[in-house]
């Protein structure tokens, strides 16, 4: 199954990165300041393949699936890391 992760980054070295399972509010402004320079947030949509039996809980911001030892709950960041690492059932979509 394929889902979308929503990433917010800033074009500055050492700036924070946020990942979520729900879209960012387009009307809300996010900035990051370094010294006297203010950076505007850049929002990206990342497509990720997750196990077919997984489900997204947008209220709790979790992806839930059945693992070898029972129910597994992961945040958007953890799902992103699993996909980048190519963990079983996870990958970045093309």
Write out key terms for the chains shown.
94 residues; mainly beta; 4-stranded antiparallel β-sheet; 3-stranded antiparallel β-sheet; 11% helix; elongated
Summarize the structure.
With 94 residues, the chain is mainly β. It has one helix at 76-85, and strands spanning 2-9, 18-20, 31-34, 37-40, 42-49, 55-57, 62-67, 70-74, 91-92.
Layout of helices and strands:
Blueprint: E1 2-9, E2 18-20, E3 31-34, E4 37-40, E5 42-49, E6 55-57, E7 62-67, E8 70-74, H1 76-85, E9 91-92
Antiparallel strand pairs: 1-2, 1-5, 3-4, 5-9, 6-7, 7-8
Structure description:
The chain has 94 residues and is mostly beta strands. The protein has one domain. Helices cover 11% and strands 46% of the residues. It is built from one helix and nine strands; from the N terminus they run ββββββββαβ. The chain has one helix at 76-85; strands spanning 2-9, 18-20, 31-34, 37-40, 42-49, 55-57, 62-67, 70-74, 91-92. The strands form three sheets. Strands 2-1-5-9 form a four-stranded antiparallel β-sheet, covered by helices on one side. A three-stranded antiparallel β-sheet has the order 6-7-8. A two-stranded antiparallel sheet has the order 3-4.
């Amino acid at each position: 199954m394929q889902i979308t992760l929503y990433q917010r980054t800033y074009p500055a070295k050492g700036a924070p990165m946020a990942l979520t399972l729900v879209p960012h509010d387009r009307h809300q402004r996010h900035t990051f300041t370094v010294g006297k320079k203010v950076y505007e947030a850049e929002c990206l949509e990342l497509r990720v393949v997750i196990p077919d039996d997984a489900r997204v809980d947008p209220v709790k911001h979790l992806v839930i699936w059945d693992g070898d030892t029972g129910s597994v709950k992961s945040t958007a960041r953890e799902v992103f890391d699993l996909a980048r690492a190519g963990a079983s059932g996870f990958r970045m979509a093309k």
